[in-house]
Write a structure and sequence with these properties.
Elements: E1 11-18, E2 25-32, E3 39-48, H1 51-57, E4 74-81, E5 93-96, E6 99-101, H2 107-110, E7 121-122, E8 141-145, E9 150-151, H3 158-161, H4 167-177, E10 186-190, H5 194-205, E11 209-214, H6 220-226, E12 231-234, H7 238-243, E13 248-253, H8 262-265, E14 268-276, H9 289-294, E15 297-300, H10 306-319, E16 325-328, H11 333-341, E17 348-352, H12 353-356
Parallel strand pairs: 10-11, 10-13, 11-12, 13-14, 14-15, 16-17
Antiparallel strand pairs: 1-2, 3-4, 3-8, 3-17, 4-5, 5-9, 6-7
Length: 362
């Protein structure tokens, strides 16, 4: 007879979970495994809300497993370490991103790209090797192999840096991999949301010229005055699009809704790279002729491996890069999801797990 989530493992845990495709979250008791020799256990203090949490809660990607405890950008304080752990110690500030396991023997794993391993284990709504469900950061405690633990320097704000573990690495990795982090390059950032605002911050820290591309003129002052972008392009304005043709070395497209990419491709110089970062549910139409005529590239990028993740956090701490956040209580989470679906957040919700979760435990 199968054990209940509360009985599967020895460590008692509590969080909020979705039980079905309605996506409604409510209190949920479950359990975590005991701290193994190479494991780190930590008390979760803050967890960011990613747009993919919303999709996963409602099974819009067709890969959700219920009960589903979302959250793959969360931080906290180490409470216990295994006998073989060398990376961190009790009391250290740490975090976990979107991946908690992989095969550790394939080519990707050997190259510190666990996120592209065919046997990658997602932080939530996936399965550990013992076939128990993985539960994410909308909860009070976490146990993970030290390979997947990211150490946070004392100098960085924990609540505002939690989203870096998903949104931050999602923009940092393609900037580096596609050669767009070199001073003097000119990149475009499509969409000014959770991903987009961090793309601007990281790119500027690299010394890159940044143009924010948006359908909303209301984002102009925010992009230029608050985030420090060099220019703003209103994508509904044909004159602006025409004037900006063939001017950009690369473009990070952070939009997670279906949209036309032809006008974006036209902004690229020859050999330019359009990198898609938004998890769009429906296929996009790919215009091939403009790619042929400019030897242009359309690519995708997920997050980054653990080595690069640590590099990104250290870089963020050095350059004082954090997300712009709205801190919410656990009880507010369903309302926050409704607002997120409408784009009503600037720019990332972060749940104050440490101060508000326990009060919701029935």
């Amino acid at each position: 007879m199968a054990k209940s989530p509360e009985q599967e493992h020895p460590k008692k845990a509590f969080g909020w979970a979705a039980r079905d495709t309605s996506g409604v979250l409510s209190p949920f008791k479950f359990s975590r495994r005991a701290t193994g020799d190479e494991d780190v256990t930590f008390r979760i203090l803050y967890c960011g809300i990613c747009h993919s949490d919303l999709h996963m809660m409602k099974n819009e990607f067709g890969m959700s497993t219920y009960p589903l405890v979302p959250g793959h950008e969360f931080v906290g304080e180490v409470t216990e370490v295994g006998s073989k752990v060398k990376k961190v110690k009790v009391g250290d500030k740490v975090g976990v991103g979107a991946v908690v396991g992989a095969c550790h023997s394939c080519e990707n794993c050997k190259n510190d790209l666990e996120v592209y391993c065919p046997e990658m284990i997602l932080t939530y709504s996936s399965f550990y090797s013992d076939r128990t469900i993985t539960y994410g950061g909308y909860s009070d405690t976490m146990v993970a192999n030290e390979r997947y633990i990211i150490h946070f320097p004392e100098s960085i704000s924990l609540n505002a840096s939690a989203p870096l573990l998903c949104a931050g690495i999602t923009v940092y990795s393609p900037l580096k991999y596609f050669g767009l982090a070199e001073p003097g390059k000119h990149i475009g950032v499509v969409g000014l949301g959770g991903l987009g605002h961090l793309a601007v911050k990281f790119a500027k820290a690299f010394g890159v010229k940044v143009t924010v591309i948006s359908t909303s003129i209301s984002k102009k002052d925010e992009a230029l005055e608050h985030l420090g972008a060099d220019s703003f392009l209103l994508s509904r304005d044909q004159e602006q699009l025409q004037a900006a043709k063939n001017t950009m070395d690369g473009i990070l497209d952070t939009v997670s809704a279906a949209h036309s990419i032809l006008p974006i491709i036209d902004l690229l110089k020859s050999h330019g790279k359009l990198v898609l970062l938004g998890a769009i549910e429906k296929p996009l139409e790919l215009p091939v002729f403009p790619l042929l005529m400019g030897r242009k590239m359309v690519a995708g990028s997920f997050i980054g491996g653990m080595k690069e993740m640590q590099e990104m956090i250290d870089f963020a701490a050095k350059h004082n890069i954090t997300a712009d956040i709205e801190i919410i209580s656990m009880e507010y989470v369903n309302t926050a999801m409704e607002r997120l679906a409408k784009g009503d957040v600037r720019y990332r919700f972060v749940i104050d797990i440490g101060n508000t979760l326990a009060a919701t435990n029935p």
